[in-house]
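Appendix B. Raw example, untouched.
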Amino acid sequence: MKLRFLLSLLFIITQVGLISYARFTPVRFFCWAPYDIHNSFEATATINNTFYDSKQLEERYNYKMKGWEQRSIYNVFLLIERYESTYGRHDDVDVKVVYSINGHPEDVWQYQHVGKKTE
């Protein structure tokens, strides 16, 4: 009985801690709290001196790169950064994301990476 109580208490404390952590981080993959941020955005890039529009980037990242996002815009940024640091690590990349959070003025996020060339 005491073990069940302690395990239940540990479970609840863990949940409260994880929810608190997720609520105050910019990337909220595991936060079940309501999404209170709405973003409109469009990504473009120059990859190995070739211009890519949002449709071409959708094929590269396997995620929409233009439109409306109900989650944190940092999820899109993280997706781009992780792709380019793994699959795209050999490419020279300059990605620009023009976005607006909750209808506020537009801002620009930029990611640049010089690829590691293999011989």
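End of appendix B.
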